[in-house]
């Protein structure tokens, strides 16, 4: 039996800059609408292949933080990725990521700062206009309990982390653009 682990999403830095970070993020990128409610059958319709569009590089910058995710193409039953956040020339945190199929469904697995893994099960897939929304959840963890990947138009990706932090509801949105992995130039697709 798997025990719940507390993910380490740089909670001290996150708590300190959460409100300012969210306000600046909202001001710098086209604001996505709140994710639509998903019927339970929506998660069953989602497959690993439905997330293959993540392959490539994604980059954003908010509140003096530069963040980047790089995802490899779907191969061998999983999509493998890495996340990296910097402030100036200093690494704030990094994460090893993967999306994989398990007997109980598709899971987003994160190992913050290369430490213990935490898995979030895909619980919803929805459309909101042209946007496609994938919702992953693990109610047994400390912040975040929910991770949402919203595929926007024109090369935008909005990664949401949501849940309770110190007893209060919190939500941070990381707006990212698809970029060329070497040059960093925006790609609109």
Q: What's the arrangement of secondary structure elements?
A:
Blueprint: H1 11-28, H2 41-45, E1 56-62, E2 65-71, E3 78-87, E4 90-102, E5 105-112, E6 118-128, E7 131-137, E8 146-151, E9 156-165, E10 168-179
Antiparallel strand pairs: 1-2, 1-10, 2-3, 3-4, 4-5, 5-6, 6-7, 7-8, 8-9, 9-10
Describe this protein with a few key phrases:
189 residues, mainly beta, Lipocalin, ten-stranded antiparallel beta barrel, 2 helices, 10 strands, disordered N terminus
CATH class: Mainly Beta
Number of H/I helices: 2
Order of helices and strands: HHEEEEEEEEEE
Which term fits the overall shape? Answer: globular
Strand content: over 45%
Mean pLDDT: 82
Strand segment tally = 10
Structural class: mainly beta
Q: List unreliable stretches of 5+ residues.
A: 1-29, 33-42
The quaternary structure here is: single chain
Helix content: 10-25%
Separation of termini? 41 Å
Please, what is the CATH homologous superfamily?
Calycin beta-barrel core domain
CATH architecture: Beta Barrel
The Rg value, from CA coordinates, equals 16 Å
Number of domains: 1
CATH topology: Lipocalin
- Biggest sheet descriptor: 10 strands, antiparallel, barrel
């Amino acid at each position: 039996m798997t025990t719940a682990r507390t993910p380490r999403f740089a909670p001290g830095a996150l708590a300190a800059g959460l409100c300012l970070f969210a306000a600046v993020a909202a001001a710098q990128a086209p604001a996505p609408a709140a994710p639509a409610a998903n019927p339970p059958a929506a998660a069953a319709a989602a497959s690993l292949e439905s997330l293959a569009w993540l392959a490539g590089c994604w980059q954003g910058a908010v509140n003096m933080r530069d963040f980047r995710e790089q995802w490899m193409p779907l191969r061998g039953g999983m999509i493998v990725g890495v996340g990296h956040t910097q402030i100036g020339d200093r690494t704030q945190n990094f994460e090893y990521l993967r999306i994989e199929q398990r007997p109980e469904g598709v899971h987003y697995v994160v190992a913050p700062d290369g430490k213990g893994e935490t898995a979030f099960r895909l619980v919803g897939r929805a459309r909101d206009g042209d946007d496609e929304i994938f919702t992953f959840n693990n109610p047994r963890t400390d912040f975040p309990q929910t991770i949402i990947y919203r595929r926007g138009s024109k090369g935008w990706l909005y990664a949401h982390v949501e849940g309770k932090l110190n007893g209060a509801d919190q939500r941070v949105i990381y707006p990212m653009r698809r970029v060329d992995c070497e040059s960093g130039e925006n790609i609109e697709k």
